[in-house]
Amino acid sequence: MPEEKYVPPTFLKWASGDVAKDYPGKTFIISCNEALARGAVEAGVRVVAAYPGSPLQYTIESLAIASSIYPSMHVEWSSNEKVAYDVTLGAAMAGMRAFTPMKQLGMNVVIDSLVQGANLGPAGFVLAVGDDPGALETENEMDTRYLARYAEIPVLEPTSIQEVKDYTLMAFELSEKIRLPVIVRITTGLAYQRSPVVFGKIHHEIRERDVSFDKNRRWILGDAFPWPMKPFGAKHMRFHDELPVKEWEGTVGSLPKASFTKEVIERLEWNELILPDRPVAGVIAVGECYQDTMEAIRYLGVESNVAILKLVTSFPIPENRVREVLKKTGSVLVVEQIEPFVEAQVCAVAANMNSHAKILGKLTGDIPVCNEVTRNIIGKALGKMLGRNFLPEEEEKRIEKGKDLLLKELSFISPPRFCPGCPELAAGFALKTVCNELYGEEVTYIGDVGCYGMMTVPPLNASYANLSMGSGISIASGIYHAGSKDKIIAYIGDSTFFHSGMPALVNAVYNKANLLLYVLDNRTTGNTGHQPHPGAFGITATKQATKMLDIEEIVKAFQVDFVKVVDPYDFEETTTVLKKALEVEGVSVVIARRTCALLAQRIMGLMEK
Amino acid sequence: MEDNHLNLMIAGLSGQGIIMVERLLVMSLAQEGRNVLSADVPPWTHRNALTYCHIRMGEKLYSPRIPEGAADIIIAFEPLVGLQVSAVYGKEDALVIMNDYTVETRGLSRDGSRDMSGLPAHKYPDIEGILGHMAGLGIDKVRIVSGTDISFKETGSNRCLNMVMLGAAYSSRMIPVEVDTLENHILENTPPGTGQTNLKAFRSGLKLAL
Amino acid sequence: MSLKPIGNQLRINIDACQAWNAKRPPCRSACPVDIDVPGYVTLISKGKYSEALDVIMEKMPFPSICGRVCHHPCESACIRNKIDQPIAIRDLKRFVGDRLIGERPNQEIKQTKKQSVAIIGSGPAGLTAAHDLALMGYKVTVFEELEKPGGMVTSCIPDYRIPIDIAEKEINLLLETGIKLRTGERITGYSKLFENGFQAVLLAMGAKKPKSINISGMHAKGVISGLSFLRDIKNGKRPELGERVIVMGGGNVAIDCAQSTVRLGAKKVHIICLEKREEMPAHEWQVQEALEEGVMLHTSLGPFRIITSNNRVTGLETIKCTNVFDKDGKFSPTFEEDSLSIIKADTIIIAIGQEIDIKGFEDIEITPSGTFKVDPLTLETSVPGVFAAGDCVSGPASFVEAVQSGHMVSEAIDSFLGGRDLKTLQTRRNNSPSLAEEWPIPRGIIRRKRQDIAQLDPASRKGTFKEISTGYREKEAVREASRCLNCGICGYCIENFGCIAMVWTTNPDLPYRVPEIDLALCVGCGVCGQICPHKAIEEIRDGG
After folding, report:
1. Of A6, A195, A410, which has the smallest distance from its Cβ to B64's Cβ?
2. Which of A524, A537, A569, A576 would best serve as a mutation to test chain C binding (most C beta carbons within 10 A)?
3. CATH code at A365?
4. Interface membership of A201 toward C (CB under 8 Å)
5. pLDDT digits (tens, 9 = 90+) for C337-358
């Protein structure tokens, strides 16, 4: 492969606030989040909804700027991911392009609507999902693509920031063509990159088109078709070549939907195949991994004798191209983040064509399943396949030594802790103090998702479980109903309360649990960078004034047995109220309310200016 | 440096202005026609969390992420952070420009004497210890800069530490960009009203080498 | 909601903070030898056993022995008494002592001084002084009348309390530091020692002459002395006692005799003592053990006469004791007329106390109670160059008191021989106040009972001299140690609250490290100021 000479763009700017403006053909340095936003803006997106979740929380901030320029665009922080999904699905059903970015854990929340919603045949509907290889930002590594396959939704994995922008735009077109939602999968390694991106034209006309909600259709669970309903069992089968596609599906033509989707994907030019005449080996690099794979190939200097398939559509895969690679090479390395998802599909293709090519990757152990796949890991696997060393042995030892140093000598470096002045730390300390005095060790603390997850570690040690958004109250109820003699405490944050804490609290009250719910209300979504929510300051994502819901009033309406708001900075008051609350039989709620110290400092800084 | 490539890493603690340095360097290099990619590693929202960014420059680049053990220059805003990042990314013979102001978090203490638990507390490694570890990895070109002190002295706060460090790094003459380009960007691309102060801090960092 | 008080800043008032750290933790104040108790207990809680042992060994050269026989005044002083139960300090000491007994490296001894010291008696006082003096660089020779060094610990205290092998091992380790030991040699008189080139003589022969009383039947067969009974058992003998035994006396020796008797198979064992239950000099826990084992305790009961038949004991006629001490606290028992009763017995063991045997040292001045009279500062007897320490000065006292006296006398001898000035003595400087009374118990302490120590159950103690208490296992020791509140050094803010703006730092002017607030991080929420038990954190008003 000849080394291309780099040609700098004639216009280059660091985009800050320019992401939403019309600059066709101009180059801006933008981040991945901005690229997602730009792609959606170019596509003429009308409705965007999301719940904050790293690494994609900043997309909404860019889109909020866009909505201030294009007033017809609606951008919102929804109360949770499923709500966001349903809002955007509704917009898509109404004929508008709609977009919802979320973190992988958000995908888990969405799954109910996702699977059924896909069957409705929404068009112009794109989801962006942030996966986290190496669990750098979240608690676990999870692979979105399995859920996408479960819901039978195509997945795109862009390989660069330019592609993030381009394929987000094209995902809308693809979605309209195949009448299915489309997922753009971003991995953490990609999510924090910046690079020059050439902007395209913004499709204002699409955004400004009229609502076209088809009232003649019946948008009913599992399918969309005219009355009367089909027998239930048939609904899922439409993906699998059984049901002919209805006339009203316009562009779809007469192909069954699933194979139509496959056919469309097969023809996409995005999955570039570089196939030398006599390749010594093949590489299938999926999404973000393409970058480091190419770096490794370049480092080895084997650009011109390896077959390289850049795979953007990881579900469904372009089977013909994979076949070509398999036909020409004796061994193929599949490189992808987290699970061997594509690798398994490649294996299936190989089995069907009786290929004897060796397929290497995570299934064969050539690439570790856990943790981020980086250049050196890919290089090592490539080197092994080609029968040579990637890095000199000494260098490899030196790098290992460095990692050892971190693990052994520097293991004392403490993980993030509560920030100085954190009201949640103060609140947690007050609770621990009171519980120690009243119950000693006979207390069970159940946490939830938020900064207060740090209560699990010393010195507080005041949280024993930390599962998923809104689960704390219900887990605590379950422990109570199981017969625990302990005093039971459940934590929840303000944002989490609105996310999914409310149904859990209703359930706890209704089913007569006996616990203290400690609401750590820091008036923002602190962990992801201070996004507003229904209970904070009365502003929306686009900084418009709105109603502010008061958690105290809400829980009162839920008829809890005790509710009181305290200021966690006032230690005496907090402990006194907690003591009272702990004596109450039934569900008592104490709301420790104080603005996040970092946010307060920022607001004070702004006020000074 | 492998065929005109430059792998530069900036590391510090959240809130020290790393992304600003990234932005200035990327823009300056790009303006002079260099092919630049960058990536900042997920910053925690919390105070004092490790954060760093990769900047890569070269004819043909695929990934903005510096491979392990391949950083040519590391700008570290804090000594321990410098060691942490060098241990993973530092190339043999890499140049490290390190601020000498230590930020202590819990679990660390300067003196290493017994804390109330009777244990010798984790000792914050002294600069010699840190340099020793780095030398063990073949990284012995370490320039120590009193960045925080200089920032305080020149601008009255530690907020311009990033500019001092940028100046100190630039003075190594390994960053292929004209000083005017960089200074223009400092004036234009820093928050309104802070340009001159930042420039002053940058120049005081620059002077360190002369 | 108002954003205040964010924006103010706080600082630690070092004086207020230090006022507490400068005071001694109560356990340490109560310890006669001033061991840094919170220091080693907390080290144990972190699994740092050898460091913990180092802390103990600074003051106590016999951790395993002390960990068994100490009367632990530290535990009575423990602040945890106010909350739940004291820390099991003694058993924690035993835990590290036993765990590391074979691994302990000896301190390096360099004989740097020319003078030599003779020490008579190898009990805890004598050995401690010998060890200290050897460490100071003196040549030291210890003379022991018996075959084994160790005094009461190796000669009398029964195996079920301190197994002989452990005691010997620990004593031998100490002797290995270069102390010369001559056993089986009874020294009578000091002049010969001076003639043989010793520059100082220490009398530490203890109080091991059994006291006697004058009642009829004392010389009948079956009347034995408590100490020689215990000594026989320690030497492996198993005296014939018959089924019914009476032990006379209310001290620890009496209890030990009774418990040993139970182990030898006696069916009915009585203890009679003049004192009321609460006046008994024996340690309460020892009395409890004896009662568990079925010993019958008769308090306020005195011996009247021993009943004999064919010059053999058949019983004891007793008399009720109304008062043991007179108004001035002097021993002067009064008895109730017409209150005689008889307890049948095959053996009567007399264990009513010990006194010192001054044979050979009659020219040295003694006190009215028969102990050597010493100068309270120099610990020198009436004869220049002759010092005395331990039970032969104080009368029968506890193990740890003997060790303390050994430490003190070694410094006095050092001073006499031209070493240090007595006014700077380490062990006597214990003047800083204890914080026991006014120490504010911080909030949020979890009530936790002390860890049970595994013990042989009373039934299985019979017939065996196996140790009663098996001591802590590692997990239990760590758990027990973690109950310590560490009242000595306050770090409540950092250790419990854990705000990252607070760090430990060293202040060169202060002996301890102190917390410091990093003003670059502090946002001034003021919570630490409210939780500090000593109110040592104050706000700096910056007007903002």
Report:
1. A195
2. A569
3. 3.40.50.920
4. no
5. 888 889 999 999 999 988 888 8
Instruction: Identify any residues that bridge with C386 across adjacent strands, giving them in sequence order.
Output: C201
pLDDT in tens, C280-307: 999 988 999 999 999 999 999 999 999 9
Helix (H, G, I), strand (E, B) or coil at A311: strand
Q: Which residue has the tokens 């805003």?
A: B77
CB C7 within 8 A of CB C523: yes
Q: Could you report the predicted ipTM of this complex, rounded to two decimals?
A: 0.90
> pLDDT by residue (tens digit) across C193-215?
999 999 999 999 998 888 888 88
**Are residues C521 and C500 in contact, defined by beta-carbon separation less than 8 angstroms?**
yes
Distance CA(A316)–CA(A148), nearest Å, equals 10
Nearest CA-CA partner of B164 in B205, B197, B116: B205
Same domain, A402 and A475: no
Q: Are residues A400 and A434 in the same domain?
A: no
Backbone angles phi, psi at C6, to 5 degrees: -55, 135
- Number of other CB atoms surrounding residue C279 within 10 Å: 14
The domain of A302 spans 271-409
d(CA A344, CA A557): 52
| Co-location of A467 and A501 in the same domain | yes
The answer to whether residues A102 and A53 touch, using CB atoms and an 8 Å cutoff, is: yes
Residues 425-464 of chain A with CB under 8 A from chain C are: 425-426, 429, 432-434, 436-437, 440-441, 458-460
Tell me: do A251 and A371 sit in the same domain: no
Which of these, C405, C433, C403, C459, lies nearest to C263 by C-alpha position?
C459
Q: HSE-up of B208 (CA within 13 Å, CB side)?
A: 28
The more confident residue out of B148 and A240 is B148
Q: Give the distance from residue A604's alpha carbon to the nearest chain C alpha carbon, in angstroms.
A: 8
| Chain B residues whose beta carbon lies within 8 Å of the beta carbon of residue C45 | 117
A320, A462: one domain: no
**Nearest to residue A599, comparing CAs of A434, A451, A471?**
A451
Give A364-414 as a 3 state SS string: CCCCCCCCCCCHHHHHHHHHHHHCCCCCCHHHHHHHHHHHHHHHHCCCCCC
Q: Give the number of C-alpha atoms closer than 13 A to the C-alpha of residue A330, restricted to the C-beta side.
A: 5
Q: Provide the token pair at A242.
A: 């059984």
A401, A481: one domain: no
DSSP-derived 3-state class of residue A332? strand
Q: A502-510 and A471-481 are packed helices; what angle lies between their axes, rounded to 10 degrees?
A: 20
Q: Please answer yes or no on whether A421 and C1 come within 8 Å at the CB atom.
A: no
> Are A451 and A600 in the same domain?
yes
* Unique residue bearing structure tokens 């590692």: C474
Compute the distance between CA of residue A106 and CA of residue A112 in angstroms, rounded to an integer: 12
pTM to 2 decimals? 0.85
Q: What is the gyration radius of the CA atoms in chain B, in angstroms?
A: 17
Q: Domains plus CATH for chain B?
A: 6-206 (3.40.920.10)
CA angle C418, C421, C425 (to 5 degrees): 125
- Total domains in the fold of chain A: 4
Q: Is residue A8 part of a domain?
A: no
Q: Which of B19, B20, B31, B65 best tests the A interface by mutation, with the highest count of A CBs <10 A? A: B65
| CA-angle at C239, arms to C235 and C241, nearest 5° | 150
Omega before A316 cis (within 30°)?
yes
- B97-to-A369, B7, B131, B173, B201 alpha-carbon distances in Å: 36, 14, 12, 12, 16
Tell me: do A380 and A526 sit in the same domain: no
Q: Do A295 and B62 touch (CB under 8 A)?
A: yes
The β-bridge relationship of strands A443-446 and A487-493 is parallel
pLDDT per position as a tens digit, A5-45: 778 787 788 887 789 999 999 999 999 999 999 999 999 99
A5 located within any domain: no
| Rounded Cα gap, residues C429 and C392, in angstroms | 24
